[in-house]
Amino acid sequence: MLRHMLKLIWKRKSRNMMLSLEILLAFLVVFAIAAFGLRYWQLYQLPTGHAYQHQWSVTIRSAQDLPNDGALFDNLKRSLLALPEVESVAFSSFGTYEMSRWTENYALPDGSNRLQVDSLNVSDDYFATMEMTPAAGRFFSRADDGADAIPVVINRRLADQWFPGKQAVGQIVVLKVDGKQEVPRRRIVGVVEDFRSHGEFMDPVYFMLLRWVPGTGKDAVNNIMLKLKPGTPRIFESRLNAKLKQVRSDWSYVVTPQTDARSSMLNTQLVPLKILGVIAAFLLVMVAFGLFGVLWQNTTQRIPEIGLRRALGADAGSIYRQIVSEQMLLSTVAMLVALVLVIQLPLTGVFGDSLNWTVFIAAVVLSASVIYLLSLLCSLYPGWRAARLSPTQALHYE
């Protein structure tokens, strides 16, 4: 039966060519959307490495560059801790769930294994404020005062890349600027499983958290991270802003609960997927109408053939199954050709981890299911119409 249907499809190859091309393109579009969505789902399941439920971010805005004044930052911290709702205060270059990003080139002391690393300057209290736990080593603290290298905490991805099969804690890395080694060096004191500053939909990257000490160095940070007591109402923002104004009234402060920042970031990151989903939906509707029209025309042109089969004893069920089976087989051939094309993507690694084998296989299965369902729905009525023809009507059809 399969061999017979393949012969019939091949004999009508000129008619089936455009139909096959339409199915192939539809499969590629659905595959792209499915892979995009499945990668988002895969990323969403990964830990971000930090909490957000009880954390608030305060961005300091000033007409001039912020001075790295140790006494000023100490005053800010003590004033905020005096509020009963505040459990912990920390400082950082920027907050989580923001589009801000800072990357630098780091390498091993001998200059090998140079990597582009996302980095963030944070104070000692940052890890407690963000409810982070070390996977190896420890977090930096006042015990690192006077150290010969800047203490840093890196994520597991970076540790495995630099020191595969070795202990990363205690190792030295260096900053490379314009190909030259900068001082001081960085010493790894701890490793966290992961840290994704942009949230759940951020691709895992090499990440480094560097120790920042108020009053040390020329650069200040302009973000305050707060951990508040559970149940703190949003109205607390007015009291918080008033307390900050008491310290520096010439600065402005943007207060953002991390739950709100997270929702905003997720909605922003989902916009491309939503747009592609709408486009794909319209395309599938157009493909469905095209398939239905072509199948209707093909069935009409084959009425004499159908009448001959009925006259030779074929029942209505056989005719119905033939029409549907031929369409499903045609869809299979078109998708196999498409599969030969798309399988090159994970094989060559052109999209890296974004199109890993788990995402690829799931996207192929989902896309094939959609195309099969579409083909089945479009072939049901033409098949039913062909099956209802009587041998006399079919043989006299012109």
Structural class: alpha+beta
Separation, N- and C-terminal Cα atoms: 28 Å
Low-pLDDT stretches: none
**What's the total number of strands?**
11
Question: On the 0-100 scale, what is the average pLDDT?
Answer: 84
Q: Which range does the strand content fall in?
A: 15-25%
Description of the molecule:
- The protein is of the alpha+beta class and 398 residues long.
- A hairpin with a 7-residue loop joins strand 3 (103-107) and strand 4 (115-122).
- It starts with a helix and ends with a helix.
- It has 12 helices and 11 strands.
- It has a 6-stranded mixed barrel.
- It is 50% helix and 18% strand.
- Helix 2 (13-45) packs across helix 11 (357-388), helix 7 (258-301) packs parallel to helix 11 and helix 9 (316-342) runs antiparallel to helix 11 (357-388).
- The radius of gyration is 31 Å and the shape is elongated.
What's the structural blueprint in terms of helices and strands?
Elements: H1 2-11, H2 13-45, E1 55-61, H3 70-81, E2 86-92, E3 103-107, E4 115-122, H4 126-129, E5 136-137, E6 150-155, H5 156-162, E7 172-177, E8 180-192, E9 207-211, E10 223-228, H6 236-247, E11 252-257, H7 258-301, H8 303-311, H9 316-342, H10 344-348, H11 357-388, H12 391-395
Parallel strand pairs: 4-9, 6-8
Antiparallel strand pairs: 1-10, 1-11, 2-10, 3-4, 3-7, 5-8, 6-9, 7-8
Helix pairs in contact: 2-7, 2-9, 2-11, 3-6, 7-11, 9-11
